[in-house]
Amino acid sequence: MRMLFFAHSGLRYLILIVGFLALVYLAYAAATGKGSDRTAKVLGSAFAGLLDLQGLIGIVMVALGLFYPALIGHIFMMVGAAVVAHVAMSMARSAPPEKAIKLRLAGVIVALILIVGGIMAIGRAVFGTGVPSIG
User: Fold this and answer.
1) Eight-class DSSP state of 20
2) For residue 41, what are the contacts with CB-CB under 8 A and spacing of at least 6?
């Protein structure tokens, strides 16, 4: 169980890094009109995919018995972040390039806000590690 916790906790940093890279790139592309649609798609898809992996690890942890009431807010916010990321990336596929960048940017911003809120909902620091008492 500890290994899953550390994987789940550590993956958070990769998600935040990819989210930050996507945020910077998409903001630059939206502001200047320059930027590759392919790079925007890759960054957005990587971000959404990492959120999916994080969710899967979280589901396994809950299924194996790691659950306490504070997780309810965490789970709802994290599911919300994954849904927002996927919906934004999906809507961007059929949008014209200049609108697609803005949709992806909005999705990343909202998802990052939900992620930070979800981390804080369980009393953890966004950039810290606290080990809960797990068996």
Assistant:
1) H
2) 89, 92
> In sequence order, what are the residues at sequence separation of 6 or more whose Cβ sits closer than 8 angstroms to the Cβ of residue 65?
1
Beta strands in 76-116 (DSSP E): none
Q: What is the DSSP letter of 4?
A: H
**Does the pLDDT at position 20 exceed 70?**
yes
Q: Looking at the domain assignment, is residue 131 inside a domain?
A: no
| 134, part of any domain | no
Q: Please give the DSSP secondary-structure letter assigned to residue 128.
A: -
- The CA distances from residue 130 to 34, 122, 127, in Å, are 41, 10, 10
Confidence of residue 129 (pLDDT cuts 50, 70, 90): low
Residue whose token pair is 């898809």:
45
Give the separation between CA 77 and CA 41, rounded to whole angstroms: 24
Parent domain of 82: 2-121
132 lies in some domain? no
The pTM of the full predicted model, rounded to 2 decimals, is 0.87
Count of domains observed in the chain: 1
Please state, in angstroms and rounded to a whole number, the distance separating the CA atoms of residues 76 and 52. 14
Kind and range of the H or E run holding 53: helix 37-63
